[in-house]
Amino acid sequence: MVKRLLTFVLLLTGSISMLAQNRTITGSLYDGELKEKVPFAIVQLLKQDSSYVVGATSDEAGSFKITAPTNGRFILKASYVGYKTIFQNITIANEQDVAVGQLDFQVDSRTLKEVKVVASAPKVVVKADTFQYNASAYRVPEGSTIEALVKRLPGAEVSSDGTIKINGKEVKKILVDGKEFMVGDTKTAMKNLPTSIVQTIKAYDQKSDLSRVTGIDDGDESTVLDFGIKAGMNKGLFSNIDLGIGTHNRYSEKAMGAYFNNKFRIMGFASANNVNDMGFGGGPRGGFGGVRQGLNATKMVGLNMNYDNGNTLQWDGSVRWNHSDGDLNTRVSSENFVAQQGSFGNRLAQEYTRTNSWDGRFRLEWRPDSVWNIMFRPNFRLTKNDGQVVSSSAAYNADPYETVDDPLSTASIAQLKALGTMVNTQRNMTISYGNSTSLGAMLQVNRKLSSNGRNVTLRVDGNYSDSDSKTFSTQDIQYFQLQDALGNDSTYRAYRYNLMPTKSWDYALQATYSEPIARKTYLQFSYQFKYGFSKSDRDTYDLSAMPSGAFGSLQPAYRSWDNYLGLLTNPLASYLDDNLSRYSEYRTYTHDMQVMMRMIRDKWKMNVGVMFQPQHSTYMQDYLGVHVDTARTVFNWSPTFDFRYKFSEQSNLRINYKGTITQPTMSQLLSIVDNTDPQNISVGNPGLKPAFTNNFRLFYNTYKQSHSQALMTFANFSTTRNAIGNSVTYDAITGARTIRPVNVNGNWDADAGLMYNTSIDSAGVWNLHTFTRANFNRYVSYLQLNRTSNLEKNITKSLTLGERLAASYRTSWLELELDGSVDYTNTKNNLQSMSNLRTWQFAYGGTLSLNLPWNMSISTDLHQNSRRGYSDASLNTNELLWNAQISQSMLKGNALTFSLQFYDILRQQSNLSRVINSMSRTDTEYNSINSYIMLRATYRLNLFGGKNAMPKPKDSPDYDRNGPGMGPREGGKKGFGGGRPSGPPPMGGGFGGF
Q1: Where are the beta strands (DSSP E) in 891-969?
Q2: For residue 718, with 0-12 CB atoms within 10 Å meaning exposed, 13-18 middle and 19 or more buried, which class applies?
Q3: How far out from the chain centre does Cα 201 lie?
Q4: What are the C-alpha distances in Å from 38 to residues 373, 428, 876?
Q5: What is the band of 341 on the pLDDT scale with cuts at 50, 70, 90?
Q6: What is the per-residue pLDDT across 913-961, written as a single tens digit (0 to 9) for each?
Q7: What is the pLDDT of residue 838?
Q8: Following DSSP, what letter does each residue of 485-522 receive, concatenated?
Q9: Less CB within 10 Å around the terminal CB: N or C of the chain?
Q10: What is the pTM of this model?
Q11: For residue 991, what pLDDT is reported?
Q12: Which strand (E) or helix (H) includes residue 541?
């Protein structure tokens, strides 16, 4: 009986053991030189004929698990950008699992030099609240900077002014390998860092200097993009030179060089272009985001340095020089929402600008031992800018486009005058110059008092600014509804010369104390005193006594006011107007007192706190013959709440709330009528109340390693009580507006988005991406038809719904992507229901990237963009936009590449934009050169250190690393698409991103 029982137990154990085996292959991937884990690498199981069976990616710890469908002999293949591909024979018998242990990648210097994508890496991986994008999964044209790469990231939005948003939040800082890069200027990195050196992009919220030191979250976060440099490029020298020349006198030139070692990094940049610095192909794919606003030529030289001894000392420094020349021609059509009466305007302006600036930032962090942390951040900025503007404009009491095609032409004005539609015409000219210097510094000292979170921090901040400006302006107005004593159209002119020096400085003293009050529960107390002072002293010389058109014979030019002042009949000092001149001083004394509690648990974290801010301010002003010397004391408070719940390492929920009080400015509270511009009169309001804004944000993300499925959703809601808006009184006779600040209720907005990205197959060859966005705004103001009528509440509601969808197929030699987008906007105004609009913008098309034999590649992008629903028929357009590029690589390691780029081949791209708020609707058309051809030459020099970065001997074994289905190289020629170990970098993947 005992023997039978033992036999049964053994058989049962064996059966369970057999059932537990399911042909699972496990292992881990490491960098063989650095001994670091390699996450998100591609792992594939191939048959002996190298055909694909199944695939997966390594996790955050570098571990992988893959299941064979049957017993047999297989090839295990592991690959990642910058490393030599690993091949290992695997035999599975009797349903047994196989543990291959640790596999070490070796750096492939040649792959680095060729910037080659070795496999279909997962596009996005989520860990906690960090989104990590694999650069190799987003193909961009040769010579592209990281701006083109960022535009293709799921959930990313890049506007025409360079503003970056990730998952609905604006990016404030760029990092390179976690180290600060050109702080205060995200555009320098976006426009100059080449994609060829980038391996990963991380998007996350970086805590403030104080939070990182104390461990207590103070709610002061900055969304950052952190670009990881390719493996093997952290030691040695590399550079990238990109020169381009095109038709219509277009040019684009960039150069960068870098030296890295274990402790020190230095990167230098230089660039010059006159293509609006937008990169190949313009704005976002399938949309109208790529509006080129004027003709702009920019130049930049920058230097960034980082040092870290790995123990006690870190420092980061950057300095840059920027120069820009702008040529902006705009045609503006607007409608002002003024009660039941129409108010339309048109403006044609030519503006030239010139700017020079120097900017320097430095950060020093010293940790002399385990308890002290000292941080120092100085900065400086020097700026000079020039401008000149000439404009012609007109106001109408009905839509002029219902009668004429060109409302600003002489014939059209005469026709509209006869119909009684004309209100006024204006001609303005302004020459301006500004010069400013600013200095600032921050010193923070932290001392840990215990190992359980008790610490104290002292901080000092200081800033100083000195600026000077000069402005010469002329304004000539003709009124068609207002006659003078002789019965002619009334006129008005204002010729003025302004000199305005301004100085300001402030300092702040802060002390922070953190105390653990329970297990994983902390209290933080903070007190800050801040003093601020600003002074301006404007001298205004009123030259309006000069006859009309006295300066008409002169052509405006930068700083040419002496030419105009030379025509004066009296000394300049005699024209000084004490009433129009303005002197003011403003002082503030602010006390910030904050209490914050932080609770940390295994699954969740919570911060809750409140800030109290008593503030005393004094204001002195001499203006318009009125002397003001007043003081004000207010009390602000701001509650905060932040809750984070971790469902898993890849799935997180965050809920955030913050309340803020906004006090009216002193100038808004002064009961003074400022009519120095007769068309825009401002009046103060002593009865203004402070505004209180509630801000809510919800964010959720999750990730599944299977098929690299990433999902993100967010929702924002904001509402303001006693918002400081405007009451506008419109004069239908002159077209003038009198604006008075008032408190309004009913302002709120909501914003929500959903992003989903997945690979359809486990190898990442087929991919699907969708991004859905909804936005609603409700703006409130008050309008008054004339001074005797009642105020009417003006409510403007704007709803925007958007969807972008893309599907792609990619291999080692081909990427094809089809995409489409649609944006619907519904705008309503309760006082101007005839102006309600329902507009549609939709786009669809595709991109094709093809690697050909002989180190040649082709990229092309074709999209149809359409608008519908605009009252101005000229805005309802269809634009078929086609860009293309052909590239040829040569020299050893394909170090030199020539590219021929064709922009807007069909010459159909327009440059229109629309802005809507509670006061008006404005449509603007810009001048630009969209269609041209450019020839580019890109040269890369890479000298990497480390024993694994040296070139391989000619007789060393090699493998084909170019795509699924290709195993160890046996020699012989490759077929089309079969891979080329020395082939060119993969190209294309869109012109500007999705």
Answers
A1: 896-903, 912-916, 920-926, 932-944
A2: middle
A3: 14
A4: 32, 63, 51
A5: low
A6: 777 665 677 888 888 888 999 999 999 887 765 443 333 333 333 333 3
A7: 86
A8: TTSSEEEEEEEEEEEEEEEEEEEEEEEEEEEEEETTEE
A9: N
A10: 0.78
A11: 31
A12: strand 521-542
Query: What six digits make up the tokens of 849?
Result: 């990237």
d(CA 283, CA 151): 8
Distance between CA atoms of residues 19 and 733, nearest Å: 91
Give the pLDDT confidence of 708-733 residue by residue, as tens digits.
788 999 999 999 999 998 888 888 88
Sheet arrangement for strand 98-105 = 63-67, 24-31, 98-105
Could you tell me the CA-to-CA distances from 334 to 413, 837, 900 in Å, in that order?
Answer: 17, 14, 41
The token duo for 893 is 């390691």
Tokens of 831: 């006082």
Joined together, the tokens standing for residue 686 give 């002593």
> How far is CA 432 from each of CA 81, 728, 960, rounded to the nearest angstrom?
52, 29, 62
CA dihedral 135, 245, 816, 120 (to 10 degrees): -20
The CA distance from 856 to 195, in Å, is 19
**3-state SS string for 817-835:** EEEEEEEEEEEEECCCHHH
Q: Which of 151, 146, 131 is nearest to 203 (CA)?
A: 131
Coil vs helix vs strand at 601: coil
Residue 3, classed as helix, strand or coil, is helix
Distance in angstroms (rounded) separating the CA atoms of residues 865 and 882: 11
Q: What is the pLDDT of residue 706?
A: 67
Please say whether the beta carbons of 400 and 408 come within 8 A: no
Q: How many helices (H) and strands (E) does the chain have?
A: 8, 47
Closest-CA residue to 213 (of 366, 45, 395, 416) = 366
Tally of CB atoms within 10 A around 311: 7
Residue 731, CA distances (Å) to 16, 345, 918 in order: 90, 14, 18
Phi/psi region, residue 817 (left: phi>0; alpha: psi -120 to 50; beta: rest), is: beta
Q: Cα–Cα distance between 723 and 719 in angstroms, integer?
A: 9
pLDDT above 90 covers what percent of the chain? 42
* The two three-digit tokens of residue 442, written as one number: 């921050």
At 918 the three-state DSSP class reads coil
Comparing 151-155, 400-404, 506-510, the range with the smallest average pLDDT is 151-155
**CA 788 from centre of chain:** 47
Measured CA to CA, the distance from residue 907 to residue 900 in angstroms comes to: 17
CB neighbourhood size of 553 (10 A): 8
Asked if residue 34 lies in contact with residue 232, where contact means CB atoms within 8 angstroms, the answer is no
- Burial code (b: 16+ CB inside 10 Å, e: under 16) for 134-171 equals bbbbbbbbbbbbbbbbbbbbbbbbbebeeebebbbbeb
Give the strand pairing for 98-105 and 24-31: parallel
Which residues lie below 8 Å from residue 451, measured CB to CB, with a gap of 6+? none
Q: Over the stretch 828-847, which tens digit does the pLDDT of each residue have? A: 877 766 667 788 899 999 99
Three-class secondary structure of residue 284 per DSSP: coil
Rounded distance between C-alpha atoms, residue 488 and residue 599, angstroms: 76
The full DSSP string for 113-142 is HHT---S---SEEEETTEEEEEGGGS---T
Evaluate if residue 470 carries a pLDDT over 90: yes
Helix ranges (DSSP H) in 163-233: 186-192, 209-214
Task: Please give the mean pLDDT across all residues of the chain.
Answer: 83
For β-strands 156-158 and 130-134, DSSP reports them as unpaired
Q: Which residue has the tokens 């596999």?
A: 103
Is the model more confident about 169 or about 388?
A: 388
Instruction: Please check whether residue 855 is in contact with residue 888, taking contact to mean a CB–CB distance below 8 angstroms.
Output: yes
Q: Is the pLDDT of residue 167 over 90?
A: no
Burial of residue 755 (number of CB atoms within 10 Å: 0-12, 13-18, 19+) = buried
Using the 8-state DSSP alphabet, how is residue 153 labeled?
Answer: S
Calculate ∠ Cα 437-441-447, nearest 5°: 175
DSSP alpha helices (H): ranges in 391-545? 410-418
